[in-house]
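Journal club prep, notes for RB
We'll compare a predicted complex against what the paper describes. Inputs for the FO1 case:
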Amino acid sequence: MNTSGHILALAGGVGGAKLASGLAAVLAPKALTIVVNTGDDFEHLGLYISPDVDSVVYALAGLNDPVRGWGLANETWNAMSAIARLGGPDWFALGDQDIATHLLRTLHLRTRTLSEITADFARRLGIVHRIVPMSDDPVRSIIETDIGPLPFQDYFVRHRCAPRFIAIRYDGIDRARPARDFIATLEDPDLRAIVLCPSNPLLSLRPILSLPGIIERLQRRRVPVVAISPFIGRDAIKGPAAKILRELGLSPTPEGLLACYASFEQSRSGRVGHAEVLQSASTARNHGERPLIDGLVVDRSDADFVTRAGTVAIHVTDTLMRNRDDQIRVARETLAFIDRL
Ligand code: FO1
């Protein structure tokens, strides 16, 4: 077992940033690469916003607001108030300090890639681990809902996830190349495991896994893939994951999560809706084909699931990460679990 190797963590959103912080606290700089979803990225007020990348960068720098779950701690909102006073859009709140990130990133994007800018910001904020946006090419998550297709932030923030979720698609995914350091980590002979953070499977992880060639590379892997369930007691810790799974006909449980991951293997188009989930439930795996997930970390409140887990190895623990100690504990337990697989 390669206990000193390289961990590749796939992350997005608050849950992803928390586990990424825990892993960064216990792993050496060269032993961790965090690849982050960019399907939530969009242009707003002329600025390029990359919410999941910023959540991970701010969390690893210790600058994040732990209560809000996004943006910077000790934030002020003067620019937003001034924008509203002038009749500008204020449905998406940009803090005064946060605006500095978006302004500089937008400026640098004229001459540099998102990967280069992220690495530069991370280094300047004292981060020693590698944070890699999943792609330098544009990918935009679109939610198909009962009121029509909505760009991700319209669905998530403007409509507060209220419309019924019918399907998600990722515009631009077919032409998007996975970031260079993402591929390099997947091909690293020293790779020890791939960790799917407790992020929303459809909003945060599926875009990363839908990039051309990624699922195929995972299916040829020599190392375990371990996921951490974002569900506790049939509900999501934060955000709309439980509501979305229910609207797709899945339960917000480890079982529903595995069904969701199975639909990723079946549907190569990237789009996931009710039909894709149903199809994967009825399609038997080809002989010898490896499931996407080797191990799943589940919360104690979902421990009854263990008996129905089939070939997937299960580790049961307290998955709620209230503080830094919890982040470190869940990270350590996940690494120990990997070494038992
Ligand atoms: N989420 C909200 O619910 N309301 C907001 O006004 C908002 C603003 C915002 C600004 C910058 C940023 O990086 C994130 C922001 N988020 C906001 C969170 C964002 O919508 C989500 O974190 C992700 O896109 C989902 O993981």
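Talking point for the session: The chain has a mean pLDDT of 93.
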